[in-house]
Write a structure and sequence with these properties.
This protein has 210 residues and is of the alpha/beta class. The protein has a single domain, classed as NAD(P)-binding Rossmann-like Domain (Rossmann fold), CATH 3.40.50. It is 36% helix and 22% strand. The chain is built from 6 helices and 10 strands, in the order βαββαβαβααββββαβ. The protein has an 8-stranded mixed β-sheet, with helices on both faces. Helix 3 links the parallel strand 4 and strand 5. It is globular, with a radius of gyration of 16 Å. It starts with a strand and ends with a strand.
C-alpha cells in the first residue's frame, strides 16, 4: 500500500512508519521537524508541512491508499490541537479524493466496557476528570470524523507504554476490551496497520488493549 502518516515523529507515529516500511509499504511521513524522525528507508518520503493549510498538505495525501494519524495533544495545555490539525487533514483528503483514514483517540472517549469492574470504573472516571480537556478535544475530533465523507476508524487505546511490539492484544469494534488498562505504542501502531484493510472497522471506534 501507499500510506501517509501524520504525527510521524510521535511515539505511535514512528512505530507506524517503522512497521509499515518493514511490511513493504511505501510511506510518506508528514512532519514539522524532519530531524526528529529517526526511521529511514528507501520506501520512505519525508514531507515537511505546516498543518494549518489543507492545500499545503494535499500533495502529501493525493493518490494514497490510506492516511494514518498519530496527531494529538502532548499535554493538557495542548488541548484543542487534535481537532484543529485533523480538520486540515480531512480537508486535504476531501480535496484529493482520498477516503481511508485511521487516527488515534483514547479509550475513555468511547463507551465503557460491558460489566466493567469497580476499580476500572473508578480509574476511568479519575483519568477522565484529570484529562477532561484532552478528551473533550478528542470527542470533537471524532465528531469531525463523523461529519466527514471519509471511511474513518478511531482507534481508542488505554494508558500507553513504551514497550516492544507483541502483536497480541484485544480489539472491540464499537466498544472496549473489559479490564484493558495498558497497551504498548508499538501494538497500537500494529493494530492501526491491521485495521487499514478491515471493512468492519470503517466508520467505527475500536477499543484496543491487552
Amino acid at each position: 500500500m501507499n500510506l501517509t502518516v501524520f504525527g510521524a515523529t510521535g511515539g505511535i507515529g514512528q512505530e507506524i512508519v517503522r512497521q509499515a516500511l518493514s511490511a513493504g509499504h511505501k510511506v510518506t511521513a508528514v512532519v514539522r521537524d524532519p530531524a526528529r524522525l529517526t526511521v529511514t528507508g528507501p520506501a520512505l518520503e519525508v514531507v515537511r508541512a505546516d498543518l494549518t493549510d489543507p492545500e499545503q498538505v494535499r500533495p502529501a495525501v493525493a493518490g494514497r491508499d490510506a492516511v494514518l494519524s498519530g496527531l494529538g495533544a502532548r499535554s493538557r495545555k495542548d488541548a484543542g490541537v487534535t481537532t484543529r490539525l485533523t480538520r486540515t487533514v480531512l480537508a486535504a483528503m476531501e480535496a484529493a479524493h482520498v477516503r481511508r483514514l485511521l487516527l488515534v483517540s483514547a479509550g475513555p472517549v468511547g463507551p465503557a466496557p460491558e460489566n466493567d469492574g469497580f476499580l476500572d470504573r473508578t480509574a476511568r472516571g479519575l483519568v477522565s476528570a484529570i484529562l477532561k480537556d484532552v478528551y473533550a478535544d478528542l470527542r470533537e475530533t471524532e465528531a469531525e470524523l463523523a461529519r466527514s465523507y471519509t471511511d474513518w476508524t478511531s482507534v481508542r487505546p488505554p494508558r500507553l507504554q513504551d514497550k516492544p511490539l507483541t502483536g497480541t492484544y484485544r480489539t472491540v469494534v464499537g466498544g472496549f476490551p473489559r479490564g484493558g488498562r495498558f497497551i504498548a505504542r508499538a501494538d497500537v501502531a500494529h493494530a492501526m496497520l491491521t485495521m487499514t484493510e478491515d471493512p468492519k472497522t470503517v466508520r467505527q471506534g475500536v477499543g484496543v488493549a491487552y
